[in-house]
Write a structure and sequence with these properties.
alpha+beta; Ribosomal Protein S5, domain 2
Length: about 130
């Protein structure tokens, strides 16, 4: 099996995943994913697609991720891994789809408007 490449995005984070057969080693930006994402909820998010299809020990995954914060990066990695698993076998798609792992979260930060303090907050109105 050759390397399988897929991309995941969340907010401003972009994750490129390279999946190949191996022993279940996950590296993010040349570090172990447990060192890169030290909190357990983020580690759970990265592992979620693999646990859903029971392939935690089947593939080595190399990830390059940039932009955004830790949460956005972890969820971008989750989407990329789920898409890569669908490329490996179409049988995984229904299980991943039912968990919502193949849906790209479209929520982005709203831009700041001119003449306002933030995106929606306005400067204080003074009648006199």
């Amino acid at each position: 099996m050759e390397k399988i490449h897929s991309i995941g995005r969340r907010k401003t984070a972009i994750a490129r995943v390279y999946l190949k057969e191996g022993k279940g080693k996950i590296t993010v930006n040349n570090k172990d994913y447990k060192k890169y994402f030290p909190s357990l909820p983020l580690q759970y998010a990265v592992n979620q697609p693999l646990e859903k299809v029971n392939l935690k020990e089947a593939y080595d995954i190399a990830v390059k991720v940039e932009g955004g914060g830790f949460r956005g990066q972890a969820e971008a990695v989750r989407l990329a891994i789920a898409r890569a698993l669908c490329k490996v076998s179409a049988e995984h798609k229904p299980a991943l789809r039912s968990e919502g792992l193949l849906t790209r979260d479209p929520r982005m930060v709203e831009r700041k408007k001119s003449g306002q303090k933030k995106a929606r907050k306005r400067f204080q109105f003074s009648k006199r």
